[in-house]
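User: Show me a protein chain along with its predicted structure.
Assistant: Here is one chain, sequence first, then structure tokens.
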Amino acid sequence: MKAGQIVAPHHIEIVDIDKPNLEDYPDGTVIIKTLHSAICGSDMPSFVLEQPTDSYPQRPGLSIHEAIGVVTESKSKRFKTGDEVLALPRQIGGCSEYFLSDESVTVPLVEYHRKDCILMAQPLGTVVWACRKLGNLLNLDVVILGQGPMGLLFSHMISNLGAKTVIATDMVDFRLEISKQMKATHTINCANEDLVTTVREITDGRMADLVIEVVGHQTETINTCLKLLKRSGTLLAFGVPDDEVYNFDFAEFFRKNINFIGSVSPDVQNDFPLAMDMIAQERMDVSPIITHHLPFTAAQKGYEMALHKKDEAIKIVFDYP
């Protein structure tokens, strides 16, 4: 079978590998033939950052974890051959014709006419998990830093949960145009406008009750979030860190009595099904974020498009034969 394999920084190749033998794996394992997978921002460090020389080539299929497919072999009592599922890959990553998963991180698909939209239940499920931690959002002023795929899903979700203002910020205009479709009430291009001043104007001086950091991969924006928050506001850190230690403005955090929440790794069996229901019932329209479909054999092109924001790419979905 074919799989994508990162063989050097910025370089992924399509290679032939052996299809896994189910008998080599424990009870609960399923083998899934991939229908669609998608690139997530958290996949980019594996592609971009230089790893130790002896770590290349990396494990086949890495690092894609957003995937749906059809069960072809099963050692699970919950899933049988032919079941359509969303699952987190195990052993082999999701950039592969077949991947392994475990029943604990596998859920059945709901019926919906666009399977690429149902695939978005994986990233949306992580947003659901984060929002479980936030409490009542009715009538709050919310700022969302970053309008990549995850930030756009947050914009829609926070709006659905009743926020008074949903202020979406990014440095790329085409993303901010999609923010409007994802129910943001205001957009700010922070490359052209002073973010703190503009948020103060939008909120009539109140500043934000909640700021969600969805940029990650650098250390600066966390301190920006602190400047946007009112006293006793809440900062939700969602963007993936590349650095172990941040230069954190502790004094401002302390004096403002800020609540700081981190969020990663959803409750698969609760959050993914709820996200699927929201999509299938059309309470969450995720279609605006899906901008490109490519054959998975064009993974190199897909990663480059995502990294460099080529062709106004937001969410790139890989299709499998």
